[in-house]
């Protein structure tokens, strides 16, 4: 029996010894030393970028939050230079402050702090007259620090901020390149399809500095949207919050050949299925589509007939377009076609607005427009005088499939074509609302 107990005691002792060695391998350094090493690593990384860091700064995660471009250079002597150009704090001028300081401290992990006032950076955290201001952070948890990428999280407002080393030192060129990318990607009425693994969603309002999202194939309803602040960069965009619970893609690179944005994790933003996107915009009360009349014989016939009837030679098409209204005083709900042109009668310029109601169906394979019926007495009377106007309405009747235009591969809502037995060039435009 004694021998048996001695064997058991020996086995237990060996087990405890093994556990002890495992613990030593996991925690072979005291916590204080590990914290100090993390601080030293962060300091070395932050001061290593020769031209400073491109910072995609996100003050907070409020619904009104936006992303801002900054260039930050951390000096080993404790001074920091911050440069920005935006409408919120610098009146769209390039501003630089080199007179403040920075530090890396420990608070359950390394903390980056801008610890003395910087005119450019602290403008985001100033309370201002409303007591709140832009609700920006100036202290950040350092979640990742490598020579290629620094990921920060605001200590108070929890927004993620991303920093990458600057490619060159020319600040004017950098901010101009960011503005060019913003213009290329986010025109008026822009909408994007995000494909992330097996999931898809719509992203829109990128031109306002934040994406709003909607379920793929659903109407764009602001009340149901989630918000994702976005910042345009030289080579794509950076977002503060990810688009899924498990995958947090922050950086998307622009591929000018494919006309899409792609993250290192494989998520893709592009124009997606334009037939579906067209329908999503079409059923949103705020948007309409203008049609380019150039080169269509029916349009030329209408303008020539107007010139003959009105004894003038300057009739011009102002607007051709589709629209949708959920509520209209004279016509409750549904789709319409609008033709608006101007002509001179004597010394005065006259405008004529003609409206047809239409039936429209759409799915992922295409769009069908049918039954162009004069909407009101004004349109009926005009058709009695100049029947060729119906030919312009019929121009927009048919079966179409949506495709991107060259140069608008990503920002499809700013320009696309509807192709069928005829081809229409369309652009998103609020000015065709009734």
Description:
Helix content is 22%, strand content 36%. Strands 4-3-2-1-9-8-7-6-5 form a 9-stranded antiparallel sheet, sandwiched between helices. Strand 11 and strand 12 form a beta hairpin. With 434 residues, the protein is an alpha+beta fold. Helix 5 packs antiparallel against helix 7. The N terminus is likely disordered.
- Quote the beta fraction: 35-45%
Contiguous low-pLDDT stretches (5 residues minimum) are 1-26
Global outline: elongated
What share of the residues lie within helices?
10-25%
Describe this structure in a few short sentences:
The chain contains seven helices and 25 strands. It has 434 residues and is of the alpha+beta class.
Question: SSE layout and pairings?
Answer:
Layout: H1 2-26, H2 31-46, E1 53-57, E2 68-74, E3 79-84, E4 95-101, E5 103-106, E6 110-113, E7 139-145, E8 150-154, E9 160-165, H3 171-185, E10 191-196, E11 199-204, E12 210-215, E13 227-232, E14 236-239, E15 251-255, E16 260-263, E17 268-270, H4 274-282, E18 289-291, H5 297-310, E19 316-325, E20 334-345, E21 348-363, E22 366-374, H6 377-385, H7 389-395, E23 398-404, E24 416-419, E25 423-428
Antiparallel strand pairs: 1-2, 1-9, 2-3, 3-4, 5-6, 6-7, 7-8, 8-9, 10-11, 10-17, 11-12, 12-13, 13-14, 14-15, 15-16, 16-17, 18-19, 18-25, 19-20, 20-21, 21-22, 22-23, 23-24, 24-25
């Amino acid at each position: 029996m004694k021998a048996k107990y001695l064997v058991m005691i020996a086995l237990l002792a060996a087990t405890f010894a093994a556990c002890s060695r495992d613990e030593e391998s996991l925690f072979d350094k005291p916590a204080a030393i590990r914290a100090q090493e993390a601080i030293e690593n962060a300091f070395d990384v932050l001061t290593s970028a020769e031209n400073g860091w491109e910072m995609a700064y996100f003050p907070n995660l409020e619904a009104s939050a936006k992303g801002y471009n900054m260039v930050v250079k951390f000096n080993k002597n404790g001074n920091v230079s911050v440069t920005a150009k935006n409408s919120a704090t610098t009146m769209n001028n390039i501003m630089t402050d080199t007179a403040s300081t920075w530090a890396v401290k420990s608070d359950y992990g390394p903390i980056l702090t801008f610890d003395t006032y910087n005119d450019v950076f602290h403008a985001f955290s100033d309370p201002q007259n409303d007591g709140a201001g832009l609700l920006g952070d100036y202290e950040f948890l350092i979640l990742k620090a490598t020579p290629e990428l620094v990921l920060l999280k605001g200590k108070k407002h929890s927004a993620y901020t991303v920093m990458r080393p600057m490619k060159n030192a020319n600040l004017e060129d950098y901010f101009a390149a960011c503005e060019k990318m913003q213009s290329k990607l986010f025109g008026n009425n822009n909408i994007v399809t995000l494909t992330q693994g097996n999931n898809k969603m719509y992203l829109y309002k990128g031109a306002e500095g934040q994406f709003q999202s909607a379920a793929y194939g659903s109407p764009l309803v602001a009340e149901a949207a989630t918000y994702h602040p976005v910042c345009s960069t030289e080579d794509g965009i950076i977002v503060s919050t990810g688009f899924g619970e498990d995958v947090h893609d922050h950086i998307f690179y622009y591929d000018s050949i494919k006309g899409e944005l792609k993250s290192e994790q494989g998520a893709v933003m592009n124009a997606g299925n334009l037939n579906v996107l067209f329908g999503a915009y079409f059923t949103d009360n705020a948007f309409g589509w203008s049609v380019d009349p150039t080169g269509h014989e029916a349009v030329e016939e209408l303008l020539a007939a107007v010139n003959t009837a009105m004894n003038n030679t300057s009739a011009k098409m102002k607007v051709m377009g589709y629209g949708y209204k959920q509520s209209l005083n004279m016509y409750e709900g549904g789709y319409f076609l609008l033709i608006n042109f101007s002509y001179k009668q004597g010394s005065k310029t006259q405008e004529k607005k003609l409206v047809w109601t239409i039936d429209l169906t759409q799915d992922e394979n295409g769009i069908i427009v049918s039954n162009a019926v004069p909407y009101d007495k004004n349109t009926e009377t005009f058709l009695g005088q100049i029947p060729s106007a119906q030919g312009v309405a019929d121009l927009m009747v048919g079966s179409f499939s949506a495709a991107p235009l060259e140069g608008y591969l990503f920002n499809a809502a700013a320009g696309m074509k509807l192709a069928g037995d005829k081809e229409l060039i369309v652009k998103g435009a609020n000015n065709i609302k009734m």
